[in-house]
Amino acid sequence: MNINDAQCPQLLKDFLFYMLTIKGRSQRTIDSYFIDLRFFLRYLRAAREHLAMSEPNLSNISIEDLPREMILGVTLSDAYGFLNFVQTTNENNAATRSRKVSSLRSFYNYLSSKAGLLEISPLKDLETPSQRKSLPKYLTLEESRQLLQAIDGPSPRKERDYCMITLLLNCGMRLSELVGIKKSSIHWDDCTLVLLGKGNKERMVFLNEACLSALEVYLEVREEPKTDQEKEYLFLSKNGKQLSPRRVEQIVEAALKQAGLSGRGFSPHKLRHTAATLMYQHGGVDIRVLKEILGHENLGTTEIYTHVASPQVEDAARKNPLGSIAAPKPKKAVRNKEQPLQEPEKEST
Which of 13, 137, 198, 226 is catalytic? Predict the structure, then answer.
C-alpha cells in the first residue's frame, strides 16, 4: 500500500508515515494498522452520523473528509462499541480483536504523545480482550523426520523445499523471516544466519550441520534470478522470483500431505513451534536461550513451551506415591446353586 494514495484522513496518513519511517515497522505491519484504523474510523462516522451499518466491513462509508474533531473526540465507549460490532457482525475472535485494540492504542498514543493533539490518550485504559491460552501445536520428533523424508521424492525443486523446511524445523524462524533471507545474510565462516524479525529487528541464529548441508545442496541447483533485486534473495520460485509467504505455505502443505500429516492444522508457523518444542524437550535448551533463538521480546511468550508434556513432567507423574495403585476390578456376582432362579416380578397393569 502506498500511504500517499490511501483513502483516509491526513491524521491517519501521518501516523502511518511515523510508524514506517521513525519506528521502522514493516510494510506488512503498516498495512495491518491501515486496515484496522480505516475500519474503526468508518464505524465512528457511521455511529456518530447514524448511518446504516448493514455492510459488515462498512466499505460504503467514506472517511477521507472525516472531521478532525471527530477523530480527536473519540471515547472509550466508541472503542467498546466498535469491538462489539466486529465481534457480533464480523465474528472476529479474541485474537483479531486484540490486534485491533493494539492498533487503536498505538494511533491515539501517537496523537497524544507524539503529535501533541491530545493531552492524554482517550484509549489508554482500553484493555485487550481475554484470550484462551492453548498449548502450541507441534510435530513430534518422529513426525518431523517423517516430514523431511517425504520431501525427498519426485519434486522438481525438492532441494529448495527440503532446505526451507529444514531451516524452519531447526532454527524456529517465522515465515516472514524465511522468505526474507538474503544470500548475504549467510555467514559461512562462523555458521550463522542473520534474520530480520518483527519491528525490523535483526537477530543471529546458528546453523547446525543439517542446515549447512541443506543450504549447500540447494545452492548448487538454485534457480536463476529474474532481476538484480531477486538475486539477493535466497529462496526463489521456478521463475526466478522471490518466493511469497503463500507459496511457502502451499509447499509445506504439500509436504505434509506427502508425509501423511495433513488435515491436522499444521503450517509453517507450527513448524516454528515444533523447532522450539524439540529444542526444549529433547535438547534441554534453557528457556532464556530459547527466547533469543525465537526472537521473543518477553520471556512470558517463550514460557508456553515449558507447559507442553516433557520427560520431567512425565517422570514426576510416575513418582507420585499413589501412582502404582491399580483400580479394583469389579466383582462378579456368585449365585448359590441350590437357590432357584427367581422370575422377575410382573408389572401391574
Answer: 198
Q: Are 101 and 126 in contact (CB under 8 A)?
A: yes
Per the CB < 8 A criterion, the answer to whether 147 and 266 are in contact is no
C-alpha cell at 150: 517425504
Shortest CA distance to 208 belongs to which of 165, 234, 233, 171? 171
Q: Exactly one of 42, 97, 160, 272 is catalytic; name it.
A: 272
HSE toward the beta carbon, residue 148, CA cutoff 13 A: 18
Query: Which grid cell is 279?
Result: 529444542
Q: Which of 38, 105, 160, 174 is catalytic?
A: 174
Say how far residue 181 (Cα) sits from the centre of its chain: 19
Decide if 174 is catalytic. yes
Q: In what order do the strands lie in the sheet with 186-187?
A: 186-187, 192-196, 202-206
Rg (CA), the chain: 28
Instruction: State the pLDDT at residue 349.
Output: 44
- Segment-wise mean pLDDT, segments of 10 residues, the chain, 349 residues: 88 95 87 95 95 88 94 96 93 91 96 95 92 77 92 78 94 92 94 87 91 94 84 91 92 91 86 88 84 84 70 70 79 62 53
The residue written with cell numbers 549467510 in the block is: 186
Question: For residue 228, what pLDDT is reported?
Answer: 80
Catalytic annotation present for 269: yes
- What was the pLDDT predicted at 226? 78
CB 251 within 8 A of CB 161: yes
Threshold 0.70, pTM exceeds = no
Q: How far is Cα 65 from Cα 291, in angstroms, rounded to an integer?
A: 45
Grid cell listed for 43: 464505524
Q: For 136, list phi and psi in degrees, rounded to 5.
A: -65, 140
Question: SS3 of 182, please?
Answer: strand
305 given a catalytic annotation: yes
Q: 105 near 124, Cβ under 8 Å?
A: yes
Label the pairing between strands 202-206 and 192-196: antiparallel
Region for residue 298 given its phi and psi (left: phi exceeds 0; alpha: psi -120 to 50; beta: otherwise): beta
Give CB contacts under 8 A, 24+ apart, made by 243-247.
243/179, 244/179, 245/175, 245/176, 245/179
